């Protein structure tokens, strides 16, 4: 079992930055791939970015490419999502998720690939 706890969300003006953290506990952190998703009320969860277990590969949604950066610190059992140049349309609840297996790169984009989810953290970007 893995527990994921997100933090770092908040209210920021357009153009600003935030850094989200996802602290993981439980099974061997370094063996997990991680993804970040976001969701608005009444909408499906949307892929934002992902990082493989080795950290050697990262994937991003086109809407955030060049603005968001995902990274991991295995010594701290933490995955980060750096959000820069934020826009009002980035407003959502952001979720961290973990997958405990080697999956095709295309799988990282789907919620179905992930075994564990955090509770989410709210990001609100004002115009």
Structural class: mainly beta
Rounded Rg: 13 Å
What's the overall geometry?
A: globular
- DSSP summary: helix tally: 0
How would you sum up the major sheet? 7 strands, mixed
Into which percentage range does the β-strand content fall?
Answer: over 45%
Order of helices and strands: EEEEEEEEEEE
- The rounded distance between the terminal residues' Cα atoms is 40 Å
Q: What does this protein structure show overall?
A:
The chain has 127 residues and is mostly beta strands. Helix content is 0%, strand content 50%. It has strands at residues 2-7, 10-13, 18-26, 33-39, 46-51, 58-60, 68-73, 78-83, 92-99, 116-117, 121-126. The strands form two sheets. Strands 2, 4, 5, 6, 9, 10 and 11 form a seven-stranded mixed β-sheet that branches. A four-stranded antiparallel β-sheet has the order 1-3-8-7, with no helix packed on it. A hairpin with a 6-residue loop joins strand 4 and strand 5 (46-51). The radius of gyration is 13 Å and the shape is globular. The N and C termini lie far apart (40 Å).
Summarize the structure.
The chain has 127 residues and is an all-beta fold. The protein has no helices and 11 strands.
Per-chain topology:
Layout: E1 2-7, E2 10-13, E3 18-26, E4 33-39, E5 46-51, E6 58-60, E7 68-73, E8 78-83, E9 92-99, E10 116-117, E11 121-126
Parallel strand pairs: 2-11
Antiparallel strand pairs: 1-3, 3-8, 4-5, 4-9, 5-6, 7-8, 9-10, 9-11
């Amino acid at each position: 079992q893995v527990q994921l706890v997100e933090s770092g969300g908040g209210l920021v003006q357009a153009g600003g930055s935030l850094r989200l953290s996802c602290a993981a506990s439980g099974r061997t952190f370094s063996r997990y791939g991680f993804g970040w998703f976001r969701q608005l009320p009444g909408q499906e969860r949307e892929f934002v970015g992902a990082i493989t277990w080795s950290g050697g590969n990262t994937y991003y949604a086109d809407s955030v490419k060049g603005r968001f950066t995902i990274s991991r610190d295995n010594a701290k059992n933490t995955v980060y999502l750096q959000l820069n140049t934020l826009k009002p349309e980035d407003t959502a609840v952001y979720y961290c998720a973990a997958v405990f297996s080697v999956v095709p790169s295309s799988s990282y984009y789907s919620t179905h690939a992930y075994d564990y989810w955090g509770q989410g953290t709210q990001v609100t970007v004002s115009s």
